[in-house]
Amino acid sequence: MTVDELRLEAELHEVRDRIRLFELDRREFLRLCGGGLLVCAAGAGALVAQESGRNFGGHQLPQEVSAWIHIDADGKVTVYTGKVEIGQNIRTSLAQSVAEELRTPFASITMVMGDTDLVPWDMGTFGSRSTPTMGPQLRTMAMTAREMLIETAAERWKVDPASLKAENGRVTNPATRASMGYGEITKGEKLTRAVAGDPPLTPASEWKIAGTAVPKVDGREFVTGKHAYPSDIVRPGMVFGKVLRPAGYNATLVSVDASAAEKIPGVQVVRDGDFVGVVADDVWTAEQALLKIDAKWQVPPQISNAELFAALKKGAGDDGASEIEAALAGADVKLARTYTVAYIAHAPLEPRAAVAEWADGKLTVWTGTQRPFGVKDDLAKAFRLGASQVRVIMPDMGSGYGGKHTGECAVEAARLAKAAGKPVKLVWTREEEFTWAYFRPAGVMEIRSGVQRDGTLVAWEHHNYNSGPSGVGTPYMVANPVTRYHEWRDAPLAQGSYRGLAATANHFARETHMDELAHEVAMDPLEFRLKNLDDARLQAVFTAAAERFGWGKMKSTAERGFGIAGGTEKGGYTAACVEVEIDAEKKVHIRRVVQAWESGAVVNPDGLRNQILGAMVQAIGGALFESIQFANGKVTNPRFAAYRVPRFADTPEIEVVLIDRKDLASAGAGETGIVAVAPAVGNAIFAATGSRLRQMPMGVGTVVSG
Amino acid sequence: MADLKLRVNGVEMQVQAAEDEPLLWVLRNKLGLTGTKYGCGEGQCGACTVLLDGRATRSCLTPAAAAAGAKITTVEGLEQHGMLTPVQQAFLEEGAFQCGYCTSGMVLAATALLAEQAHPSDAQIVEAMNGNVCRCGTYPRILAAIRRATHTPVKKGADYDRG
Ligand code: FES
Ligand code: FES
Question: Is the CB of B163 less than 8 angstroms away from the CB of A226?
């Protein structure tokens, strides 16, 4: 991901103009840490610095700091980072990286994450950036800490630091057998050091803690129900809030009568412009009070999803001209096809939730978000507070998938808490989450291409309207490809990040189109891809998936089809082989998926498998049935009963093939695992039925002809 | 508001609740048992699953008053003297969660299933669990965990050979 792409993703969820200078007060921080050893990074690489530790807008800070590591007198290691845990297992894998470089037991590490009073500024947890950027930063700091511990011990023992070894949380002198725990070394002294430059890190081939399947930190808390998610936070004297929602998007409030609600004992109605909310001692009473508010809204006419794709292409501006005429002219076979993806919802199982508390002029909000500092900025702006007057704490949450970048629930809770004079908990209902969050953008993708009879790709043009630029480029060899994203700023629904961003849409279009071309020149779809690929990493995942699947061993029939697709984005390489069954009623069932994955050196194989597996299951929803329906400014299917998400019965036999490239830097893996399944499913359906599906979702319990 | 006596995790509890107030809100907001989760409020996701006299029940659709007199078990009531139940242990060993928000509902639904049927087939597991949503998509591991809890050997192949 380039700086420009990061900026674009940031803009997608409207963080522009919202990021302020991170006010780093190191004295305050050192006071909090007490004695011990403190290491922070300085002068990190340009890209890294733009994401974490200093202002995105390019302000220079006296000290650019992206994270801290502190070792106390008992040898307990605390790592402070602005990244957050949302189910992607980063709490565990980052701790593994620190333990590895620090040569200390995994159990001695505590990660403090996403608390804006304690951790350095961070842009947010998205874009698969935590592993490739925060990982090396923390490893660098841990390595510096290790060097410092060795140097300090060497001074005490009056020996050459090079003669000492650090292992298992201790520095030892092999010659004298003297040994000191890290805590003993730091004891009573305040040691600080800033890291500069790029010290050599331990190569993945020598990893002992990183690279292993360390179980998820605090796993027991999750199976016993003890882990407190944002919606579980309880504060003394806390009451419950509800917010009145407009009758549709872009509605204006005409009138409101809250007198019946106000008569309910213990209910307080809060009104501030178009914002109307209630507060009560328990959530049930608050819900009843909300129902009693009589509000009239004016909803302007808006397009419905029946008109979506036409509006979207018009809105995103298309002149329809092909830019590859010359290349196309020389092609044996020419193809022009259009693909679409619907708006879909993230629907994290824990909806947006916040507990807001005002005390001594300071606002503290516990909330589920992928951008704690972004939410902090939202709060500061909404209530005209200085940066030191707002604290956002992000307890490990019930996931996000790119859907929890914004802070509206936190702002609403804070507004209610201000009026109530007490801490307020606000948890969005499922319907609110489906309606008032933002969506994965819908999109239209147009591809024009040309290919020779021998399967050589000679022309390629791929336009994406509205859904985004991620993954729009083709990894296949072709001269002068044209790939372009056409933005639409006035899209009908609020749209933002979603796991993999537009890579899902663009891969669906490209990998379906490649299948169509293979069919046109009567080549095996895998062979056709490999013929046009020179990217060895992508070739490797295609080959690995195909081998494990047994690609080519079975021929598709009318009842059983096999499909393949793959791609690369954000440093992850993936390919999937899918088997579908077409039953007697012509309904499609996904029976088996084998997906290969490679993202450099594996930090935690178990966590990685889990991520890829989850992305594959989630992909089935977008491929087959997820679609937001809307009309007149309202979502018409804002419930799990009407918006189908993948369930046990939808889950095929799944196999993940991991390729561990210890010679390559680790990339993030939370997102790109989602891109290959949908096109592979569509290609498998075509292989069985001859029916080509060019839209996502392809249809609930897709019935096909043929 | 009426006074209710609820028997939760073996303990008799007194609580005030409105007539239709769902058991979910009473457990979470009045009895401090936040292990039971809200996911949809309409019986579609299973995050709020508790056991009423051993049967998996959607606490979001069950008025608290209707649960008076029943033995209510929430996820907090499973662990005994620091010992996890076989289902909890199996979830832990299989790493059968990501964000974990669905886990308490999954664990309780599986517990109820195995109490009724010690060795369910895969089809029976899928049928019994299909009302429980894991948006993180960890279904294959949850299936493996349930099989593990019944001590039936895990089918080879899938995701489970840890690398
Ligand atoms: S919250 Fe009860 S089933 Fe979803
Ligand atoms: S683990 Fe996140 S919903 Fe199941």
Answer: no
Q: ipTM, 2 decimals?
A: 0.94
CA distance A395 to A228: 7
CATH number of A230-299+352-427: 3.30.365.10
- Measured in angstroms, how far is the CA atom of residue A469 from the centroid of ligand 1? 37
Q: In whole angstroms, what is the distance from residue A131 CA to residue A137 CA?
A: 10
Q: A609 contacts in B (CB within 8 Å)?
A: 159, 162-163
Query: Which DSSP string do the residues of A243-282 spell out, in sequence order?
Result: EPPPSSTT-EEEEEE-HHHHTSTT-EEEEETTEEEEEESS
Nearest CA in chain A to B83: A224
pLDDT tens digits, one per residue of A545-602: 999 999 999 999 999 999 999 999 999 999 999 999 999 988 999 999 999 999 999 9
Burial of A62 (0-12, 13-18, 19+ CB in 10 A): exposed
- Picking from A85, A229, A284, A591 by the largest number of B CB atoms within 10 A of its own CB, the best residue to mutate is A284
What's the start-to-end Cα distance of chain B, in Å?
56
The domain over range A65-224 is classified in CATH as 3.90.1150.10:
no
Q: Is A11 in contact with A56 (CB distance < 8 Å)?
A: no
Q: Is A399 in the pocket of ligand 2 (CB under 6 A)?
A: yes
How many angstroms separate the CA of residue A638 from the nearest CA in chain B?
10
Backbone angles phi, psi at A184, to 5 degrees: -60, -40
Interval A213-263: pLDDT, tens: 999 999 999 999 999 999 999 999 999 999 999 999 999 999 999 999 999
What CATH number should be reported for the domain whose range is B2-76? Answer: 3.10.20.30
Strand pairing partners for B124? none
